[in-house]
Amino acid sequence: MKNPKIKVTETQLLSDNWYILNKVTFDYEMKDGKIESHIREVYDRGNGAAILLYNTTKKTVILTRQFRLPTYLNGNKTGMMIEVCAGLLDQDHPEQAIIRETEEETGYRLQKVEKVIETYMSPGSVTEILYLFVGEYDETMKVNDGGGLDAEQENIEVLEYTFDQAYAMIQSGEITDAKTILLLQHAKIKNLI
Q: What is the distance between the alpha carbons of residues 49 and 118, in angstroms, rounded to a whole number?
């Protein structure tokens, strides 16, 4: 159901070079009934999924490291980020998408995953819903080296840490990615590892 207090009056395409950036003009009815007009830029890159791979026997997790230009432009000296495996849905169901992304990025072929939560990561400017999952892995599931797809210009390093080491990297500032922090905290709260 649409909010009757919101009326979009104009949507102007600013860019569709990588994803879609629109300038949206809308009217918003305030509590006192007054109508205010607002203009916002909204970035639509589709929805995504992310997963924390964990091994209860070894008490380890699989993470990735890759270059992220926006972080580099905003103070990350190397631009490298340690993150959970993630990717866009590309018209797939979230579970299908994260199983596909897991194999592409980490080389592990999962049969099942568990959904943790869905969240908006930057609701003031980005439309994306991010579906967060956890999934158990072991060495029998390793089908390739991972690293991402050349066609997508991915250059992903696959990392395996003990859970305690990965969790400590939040406090040390080595892990600053929100989806990764959320999933590591979920694992800690639920005693997954």
A: 9
Q: β-strand 157-162 against 6-15: which pairing, if any? A: unpaired
- Mean residue pLDDT across the chain: 94
Alpha-carbon gap, residue 3 to 17, rounded angstroms: 31
Which of 119, 130, 141, 138 lies closest to 89 in space, CA to CA? 130
- Span between the terminal Cα atoms of the chain, in Å: 41
Q: What's the whole-model pTM score? A: 0.91
Overall residue count recorded for the chain in this entry: 193
- Gap between the Cα atoms of 137 and 109, Å rounded: 8
Q: Where are the beta strands (DSSP E) in 2-120?
A: 6-15, 20-29, 35-44, 48-55, 60-67, 80-83, 85-88, 114-120
Between helices 178-189 and 163-172, what is the axis angle to 10°? 130
- Cα–Cα distances in Å, from 115 out to 30, 32, 69, 152, 167? 37, 41, 29, 26, 20
pLDDT grade for 155, boundaries at 50, 70 and 90: confident
